[in-house]
Every structure is written in structure tokens, then in C-alpha cells.
Specification:
Radius of gyration: 22 Å
Bound molecules: zinc ion
Order of helices and strands: HHHEEHHH
Number of helices: 6
Strand content: 5-15%
Structural class: mainly alpha
Number of domains: 2
Strand order of the largest sheet: 1-2
Shape: extended
């Protein structure tokens, strides 16, 4: 439905509609790769996690920055952090990163321990990027996305079309964990 005219070729129109953003020549492979259905955890893009690489350990006394300072508002340490624990949310499988500075390393090990069981039972993450072409065109998308990435690329457990993915908060997320078949070794030396 994107408007096209004689000066704008079909692929230029597609490129603009898919939002690769620049006027520089973009290869078809890059375009398709941009649309690969996937889950991007917080911190993948700049600015998508306000506490990216900042310590979330508890604050003992107010920061001199004043009441509006994020460290006082959120009551967190806020120091640059190098290590994190990933919490996988039970409803969506989405990640929540808990960063800690070296001074709060005891909190890091505690959080890692606390989320261990929850993470083990979390569903595969609901994708949050790509899958738009598959919602509008009909082709062998497994083959196409593998061509744009790697031959071993695996589609999300929720399918390749963004239209088919559950919207967290609006509809229940079906539990679709990734299952793997484990076959026992052919010979067991049991007495
Ligand atoms: Zn800290």
C-alpha cells in the first residue's frame, strides 16, 4: 500500500516501507534480515532499557542529585555495572536484566539463585521484532529467512508471522516451550 511513482522503483519503496531508515543502498539480504522474526532482549538497542548497565542494588542514602535523580526515584545504586542476572518472565519468557556493580556482587549471586527455578520453567520468549513480511506475502519464509541469516536458523516457537504472536497483556500466552527429544544411548550396561 506504500505509494510508488515512476521515480521510485519497487524495491526502493519496499525499503522505505520496511524502515531501514537510510537512503544508502541496502541489499535485499539486509532487508530480509531486518525482518527476521526474533526476540530482542532489553539492552539490544540503545535506550530500550533505562537501567541498562546500571546497578539496581539498593541505595543506602540519598544521592546528591536531588529528588528527581533516577537513583533517588528508583532507590537504586545506579553505579556502572559489569555483570547481570537474567530473569525470564513467567508469562512471556521476556527477559528482565538485573545489573549489579562490584560493590553489590552479593546481590548478583542472590538474584541468580532466586530466578533459577522460574527461568527453568519460563516459556520460549514471544518474538518482538520482524515477522512483518510473512504477515503480508506468501512464500517459503523458512527458506527465505535462512537465506538471509544462516542455514541453521530456527523459527520462533510462536511461528514466523508477527500477526500470529500473542500480544502480552492482552491475550494469554500459550505455553510453547522449546522441546528437544533426548534419545537414550543404544546400549546400557545394566547388571
Ligand atoms: Zn551498586
Amino acid at each position: 500500500m506504500a505509494p510508488a511513482d515512476e521515480d521510485t522503483g519497487i524495491w526502493a519503496t519496499v525499503r522505505l516501507a520496511l524502515g531501514t531508515g537510510t537512503s544508502s543502498p541496502v541489499s535485499l539480504r539486509q532487508l530480509v534480515r531486518h525482518d527476521v522474526p526474533r526476540y530482542e532482549p532489553p539492552g539490544t538497542r540503545w535506550g530500550d532499557d533505562p537501567l541498562d548497565r546500571l546497578c539496581t542494588g539498593p541505595r543506602m542514602r540519598p544521592h546528591p542529585g536531588g529528588a528527581d535523580d533516577f537513583r533517588n526515584r528508583l532507590n537504586v545504586c545506579g553505579a556502572p555495572a559489569q555483570e547481570m542476572a537474567v530473569e525470564k518472565l513467567p508469562g512471556t519468557g521476556w527477559h528482565k536484566n538485573h545489573w549489579f556493580c562490584p560493590r553489590h556482587c552479593d546481590h548478583l549471586s542472590r538474584v541468580r539463585e532466586q530466578v533459577r527455578e522460574q527461568n527453568a520453567f519460563a516459556p520460549a520468549p514471544v518474538p518482538n521484532r520482524g515477522g512483518l513480511m510473512a504477515s503480508y506475502f506468501d512464500t517459503d519464509f523458512l527458506k527465505l529467512y535462512r537465506w538471509a541469516t544462516t542455514p541453521s536458523w530456527q523459527p520462533p516457537a510462536y511461528g514466523m508471522r508477527a500477526d500470529d504472536w500473542p500480544i502480552p497483556g492482552q491475550e494469554p500466552v500459550p505455553q510453547r516451550a522449546r522441546l528437544r527429544l533426548i534419545t537414550p544411548p543404544p546400549h546400557t550396561d545394566r547388571p
